[in-house]
Amino acid sequence: MQRFMQRFMQRLIGWGLAISLWLWSGSAWADWTMPMSFSNADLKGRDFSGQELQGSEFSNANLERTNFEFADVRGAVFSASVFTQSNLHGADLTNAMADQVNFSGADLRDAVFVESILLRSNFANTNIAGADFTDAILDGAQIKSLCRQAAGVNSKTGVGTRESLGCRA
Fold first, then answer.
1. Distance, CA of 97 to CA of 164 (rounded, Å)
2. The model's pTM
3. Within a domain: 77
4. What is the pLDDT confidence band of residue 16, given thresholds at 50, 70 and 90?
5. Is the pLDDT of residue 14 over 70?
6. Long-range contacts made by residues 106-110, C-beta under 8 angstroms, separation at least 24?
């Protein structure tokens, strides 16, 4: 009987610990939200200003004339999307994957592109005043072109646009 009680108590304590851990870890999951997916979507003219969209996926999306002003899109994926004439003023695109994106005519003032991948993206006729490209991955031709118009200091990071691109004086 004593052996039965000892095994019963061990199992009871084991189950109690397991349930406690499960309940405790549940509160950690409450703050986690599933990233949204807008891949291949036609989002022309949509307003995402000020929204928290970390890790969301917008690959191959039509984002023409969209508003992402002051949006938090850290870690988002925009591969092969179209951002023509869009507003990304003050948006945080840290660690974003924005390769092969058409940003032509976009407002990128004060945007944060820290450690973003921007290879083969089109920046024709964009406003990059105060944008921070620190440690972003860009083609040499992109850097040369962006340096021609680079000016200003990012209000969030305090880094100059020319400095972040590694432009020569």
1. 18
2. 0.80
3. yes
4. low
5. no
6. 109/152, 110/152, 110/154, 110/155, 110/156
